Amino acid sequence: MSPLGLGSVVDNPHSPSHEEELQHFIASMSPDVHDTLMNNFWVHYNSELQSVQKWMFYAGLRTGDAGRYSTFLHICILAIGLRYADKLDSRIHEYVGDVSESVIHQKALWIARYEAEGRCDVPAIQALLLLGDLEFGVGRYNSGWMYAGLASRLCFDIGLHRERSESKLSEEVVHMHHMVVWACIVYDE
């Protein structure tokens, strides 16, 4: 077993099971801890600069819609939520870790190497923005800029900045795209 608890996936990172390993990690959290971290993200972080729409994230999670949800994004949200958690709470302590970044942050860094190679969608962009912020938070400014910059480049590469008035996308999806574009612009400043 690797130090990140990712088993043989570290030996074969392109294995489709890396997604399953991370889903298992999320499912292994107690519902109370999971909900606390998620709530911390929505209340303390995402309320200032919305980069993720809560209802769309949960709708994507519930339906398996990859355009609204990814395990990578979920892990990044949990890592940011941990930033606002009571580190003395015994339920939280196992996720804090021994190094500058949390155990959850380490998992986000691990999956980012592989997600960035294969994914180019809104949840990946949102996750990269959050990961950039996580990196800034532990003093790794160069990698923080790298992840935020990658998110911004992907945002424009897939055309989220284009006018979508005549597209077949729903009004909610168009709004989400605009929100992500603005978040990329702000993070890239």
From TrEMBL:
One of its GO terms (molecular function) is DNA binding. Keywords: DNA-binding, Metal-binding, Nucleus, Transcription, Transcription regulation, Zinc. CDD domains: fungal_TF_MHR (cd12148). This is Xylanolytic transcriptional activator regulatory domain-containing protein. Signal peptide: none annotated. It comes from Lophium mytilinum. One of its GO terms (biological process) is DNA-templated transcription. InterPro entries: Transcr_Regulatory_Elem, XnlR_reg_dom. Residues 39-184 form the Xylanolytic transcriptional activator regulatory domain. Pfam families: Fungal_trans.
